[in-house]
Design a protein that fits this description.
This is DUF3617 domain-containing protein. With 128 residues, the chain is mainly beta. It is built from one helix and nine strands, in the order αβββββββββ. The N and C termini lie far apart (42 Å).
Length: 128
């Protein structure tokens, strides 16, 4: 009798868990580096659908990081320094690759000196 009740409880666990499932949260990570006055500015939607502005600007030679937990999508613009290139990388497995080169860890793009443009941030459909 006890083993039957344990088996019934085990069978019921997955169905109860499915009713409480929520989409996975993940941090969107954009990194950029370059020399001189460069900028990457993003308008992203949070989980409530509100627009949030995030920006990173050139500060020396190291990587600068822009992060947002559970971004639902948005767009980013960039401007490289007039005389130096700008490198941008994107990390976060739930987000599509908006940059020119896909890598094992995400994707990346080098913007030539004086270059500017924009890209879209899209969250992948988890059902795929």
């Amino acid at each position: 009798m006890k083993s039957w009740m344990m088996a019934a409880a085990i069978v019921m666990l997955p169905s109860a868990a499915l009713g409480q499932w929520e989409p996975t949260s993940e941090v969107l990570v954009l990194q950029a580096r370059g020399e001189g006055p460069w900028v990457v500015r993003c308008q992203l939607q949070d989980r409530k659908g509100e627009t949030v502005t995030r920006e990173i600007v050139g500060r020396g030679r190291g990587w600068q990081r822009l992060t947002m937990l559970d971004a639902r999508g948005g767009s980013c613009s960039y401007q490289a320094a007039p005389d130096k290139p700008l490198e941008i990388t994107k990390r976060g497995g739930l987000y599509g690759c908006p940059l020119a080169t896909k890598t094992r860890k995400g994707c990346e793009q080098t913007i030539p000196a004086g270059g500017s443009g924009q890209f879209e941030v899209t969250r992948r459909d988890l059902a795929q």
